[in-house]
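Spend some time on this chain, tokens included, and walk me through the fold:

. . .
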Amino acid sequence: ILGESGTGKELVARSIHFSGPYRDKPFIPVDCGSLVPTLVESELFGYVKGAFTGASQTKDGLLSIAQGGTIFLDEIGELPIDLQAKLLRAIQEKEIRPVGSTRRIPIDVRILAATNRDLEHAVSQGTFRKDLYFRLNVLSVKIPPLRERRQDIPLLVGHFLDRLSREAGMERMLTDDAMKALLAYDWPGNVRELENCLERSCALTTAPLMQLRDLPTYIHG
């Protein structure tokens, strides 16, 4: 799943999972960019008691916890090169070996991966394994940035305001001028920025109808 930061790649992954035959199975999201490099392996593959200092008990890896379901590897381009090789082996062999264990555990998971990086360029630079890229790139979905699909903005606004209305116990709406300003803005932070903008505006006004002045000044000038 390809797209700029904030375009909603995880939402797409969740939609794929929950609209298909895997819907009753686990959906495990993993942000490869936020995990500490030294802990990525133990998080994905698990570890046995005593495998390293602090491993006081055996812990299942996320690839094992997702058994029968979907694991979503967000920002896959941030995965260290040595772990790329181990992930490739896990995909090919359909089994994992927890840190500190000699036993291999069979896995049956669907892998969805996402990135905002150009992985073909990363392959040419030697920072992403070519064999893993081709293994993951069976089917690709590119999500355009929000500025290239402005027709989606009213739908997204309606979705977010419905949720915010339920949370506040009060219906939230926008004036036409406020909606025009949202449609005219370029949204460099994409869907995530739009959601944050509406949450901020709802927090700063008690009126059910939000005016242009209730939006951040950088949006309406």
User: Anything to note?
Assistant: The first strand starts at residue 27 and ends at 31. The chain has a mean pLDDT of 92.
